[in-house]
Amino acid sequence: MLGVLAAFCSLTACANYDERLAVAHKQFYSQNVAGAVTTLEGLIAEAEGDNDEQLLRLELGIALQAAERYEESSAAFERVDDSLEVLDYTSAGYEEVAEFAFAPEAAKWRASPPERVMLNTQNMINYLARGEVGGAEIEARRMRNLVTMEDVSEDERFANTFAWALAGFSLELSGDFGEATGAQREAGDTSLNEHEPAAGQQFVEGEEPAMVVVIAQLGQAPIRRETQYVFPAGSTIHRLNVPHLVQRAALYDAVSVELDGVDQGKVPMLFDYGEHVAQRYDQELPTLLAAALFQAVGRALVAEGVAKAARESVKASSDSKNDQEYAALAGFFAGLITNWGLSELAGSDTRCWSLLPNSLGALRLNVPRGEHSLALQLTGRSQRLIRRTVDVQPGELVVINLVGEIYGTYAPTLGPGELPLAGNSAAVADTLEIVQQASWWAQVID
């Protein structure tokens, strides 16, 4: 029986989203964006109608955008936009979280609130890069309507400063100055509000200036990896499979800009998506642990039953003291192995929008008509110089969208493995507060 169980575990483990996306990840982060696009398109063709399809389309949208195929990127995002469902682990009940976070093979992927906002934000970038102000205006309004809904907390509403700044810029370009001012107020004073000429530039009198906007998308967003929180209870060791947030190291953390040989400073980074997601995860963890505990109750009862049966079986065959000690040991290991096997079968959902950047920023440069040269210096753990030349007309907008991590080298991201549940006392205390109100909790403490 244990052999069959182990074989089944190995079969189910190989079908998870992380492994499904491994080749595309390696290509995207190893200077082969075109290869990542092709791989993702193949995965989507295979996944049509399944639980991962929407998430794969979002990943494809990012890859297409990095390849500067902005119209196709918009199409990928808009295929998902109207039907994308959201699940907020910070406010949902543990039973709802258990239904979706611990049945990844059976549950359709649902976006987190920050991921949902990033969909409209990324599509604003696409439309601005295409020079289609009307499309950017629509995405700006969608983003604003999304985050100002009644059930969105104040902290979440104004967290994505980059989205608000880009929305204000898009609305200003569309001529809706009243709404633009409101969005810009939420974003604070950013370079996207700047109307003065860039350093070293002079406007032509009577002629509308052009705009060059450098958008920096740096680092890799945190991703989820399955972790087992371990704790002893009764005669066995129990494990809670929980999606654990793992930070990924950024190759570049800043972009310095020169325009026509004149230093323009660094691109101001407006939103640390990774930090925001990490703060939310601290709020999510108690509910995730409560949901995992809810799932684990059945496993624990089965394991305890197997342990008891093993003890009684050995006891019935002999009355010697040594055999009685062996019975206790046999029961312990029978329960341990059963609990381990059932834990392996009950995986947690680690799916997330993994090709998102860790941080986003923008620098607006107002210039006269004509040809201008830009030098973009990426710095951090590595360095890279990118040169661009633009030829602009009065009133024209040119967007340079810099996705830093596509110039790097792929490195796999591993989870922390097992963690002692007792090592996070604050989360444990909050988890207990949640589960003590549940009727099934009595079965755990009896």
Structure, briefly:
This protein is α+β, with helices and mostly antiparallel strands. The protein is built from 16 helices and 11 strands.
Provide a descriptive summary of the structure in words.
The chain has a 4-stranded mixed beta sheet. The protein has a 4-stranded antiparallel beta sheet with strand order 5-4-8-9, with no helix packed on it. A hairpin with a 2-residue loop joins β2 and β3. Mean pLDDT is 84; it is low at 1-14 and 333-342. It is elongated. It has a domain at 190-445. The chain contains 16 helices and 11 strands. By secondary structure, the chain is of the alpha+beta class.
* Strand line-up in the sheet with most strands: 6-7-1-10
Q: What is the strand tally?
A: 11
Distance between the termini: 29 Å
Low-confidence stretches: 1-14, 333-342
Radius of gyration: 26 Å
Summarize the topology:
Elements: H1 2-13, H2 17-20, H3 22-28, H4 33-47, H5 53-66, H6 70-81, H7 94-101, H8 113-129, H9 133-147, H10 154-157, H11 161-174, H12 177-187, E1 210-218, E2 223-233, E3 236-246, E4 252-259, E5 262-266, E6 269-272, H13 273-317, H14 321-345, E7 359-367, E8 370-380, E9 384-392, E10 397-403, E11 418-420, H15 425-435, H16 441-445
Parallel strand pairs: 1-10, 2-11
Antiparallel strand pairs: 1-7, 2-3, 4-5, 4-8, 6-7, 8-9
Helix pairs in contact: 1-14, 3-4, 4-5, 5-6, 6-8, 7-13, 8-9, 8-11, 9-11, 11-12, 13-14, 13-15
List keywords for this structure.
446 residues; single chain; four-stranded antiparallel sheet; four-stranded mixed sheet
